[in-house]
Amino acid sequence: xxxxxxxxxxxxxxxxxxxxxxxxxxxxxxxxxxxxxxxxxxxxxxxxxxxxxxxxxxxxxxxxxxxxxxxxxxxxxxxxxxxxxxxxxxxxxxxxxxxxxxxxxxxxxxxxxxxxxxxxxxxxxxxxxxxxxxxxxxxxxxxxxxxxxxxxxxxxxxxxxxxxxxxxxxxxxxxxxxxxxxxxxxxxxxxxxxxxxxxxxxxxxxxxxxxxxxxxxxxxxxxxxxxxxxxxxxxxxxxxxxxxxxxxxxxxxxxxxxxxxxxxxxxxxxxxxxxxxxxxxxxxxxxxxxxxxxxxxxxxxxxxxxxxxxxxxxxxxxxxxxxxxxxxxxxxxxxxxxxxxxxxxxxxxxx
Length: 351
Prior knowledge:
Keywords: ATP-binding, Ligase, Nucleotide-binding. It comes from Anaerosolibacter carboniphilus. This protein is α+β, with helices and mostly antiparallel strands. It folds into 3 domains: about 10-115 and about 330-350, 3-Layer(aba) Sandwich (Rossmann fold), CATH 3.40.50.20; about 145-205, Dna Ligase, domain 1; about 205-325, D-amino Acid Aminotransferase, Chain A, domain 1. About 35% of the residues lie in helices and about 30% in strands. The protein has helices at about 25-35, 55, 70-85, 95-110, 120-125, 130-140, 155-165, 185-195, 250-260, 290-295, 300-310, 335-350; strands spanning about 5, 15-20, 40-45, 60-65, 85-90, 115, 145-150, 165-170, 180-185, 200-205, 210-220, 225-235, 240-245, 265-275, 275-285, 315, 325. The strands form 4 sheets. The chain has a 6-stranded antiparallel β-sheet with strand order 15-14-11-12-13-17, sandwiched between helices. A 5-stranded parallel β-sheet has the order 4-3-2-5-6, sandwiched between helices. It has a 4-stranded antiparallel β-sheet with strand order 7-10-8-9, sandwiched between helices. Helix 5 crosses helix 6. The protein is globular.
């Protein structure tokens, strides 16, 4: 069942939206969802890399400045939004989340565009995996048994004794599966923590067949406008297959997590089941690499956000269709004119 909408506002002309980091897996997922929407959406995509596929899928594509040069990047985005009457900004680059979180209010005031990004507090809490675990535990949600390293090195022996091997070692601030190591004995553990800091050592949740990725979208008023739980299968840290088979209880559980965080826009929660109960091990305060997969199950997260926040419609979350989605990579051909036009278009927006 698709999402339901109330208080339909009349739409005059195309709705122009901006997608940043359009070459990432989730940047492309956002673009695909927007292009599939029944709304008259016109997509402008930006990326620092001219060979990013999203630039070619969008209605308009521009090579972006780097967000690290904040003043120039801010001006670039401001000009782009004003020139193209952008109504909403979707962030497809993890590296840009902090910039948009800090500048959200200012950009919304100067351009009139809604910026779908979580607050700096939420981003900091979710980016630091130890802070994530602390928040979840305080809020009454189940987490894997965890200690910090080297801060809790004195507890290491008792932790090993009570938890047992295998264990997970990962950086507090890593992205996705980056730097995550499964260690099977004490020697392996010591080899992987020696001389390092800012680590978490964590209970390994053994049931790989019960791993879920859960997408929640929240509006400005803290209301859930979209939710979906998918059982997923990973290859090198990326979902390559997803099953939708109800899982409403898991989606509702994660919606409560998003509410305790005070999330806004998209948030993505990773968990495994232990004794039939969800145990969350990671929260990403952004759209997911499975955004495009969710679309195929009938859940269009970007459209729900536009309807709620730009068109001021009441959005009632829909139920995902049941089924299986498999991910495979494809090749695309474009004429050289398209590539050459990107650099020319960029120059127009540097004023």
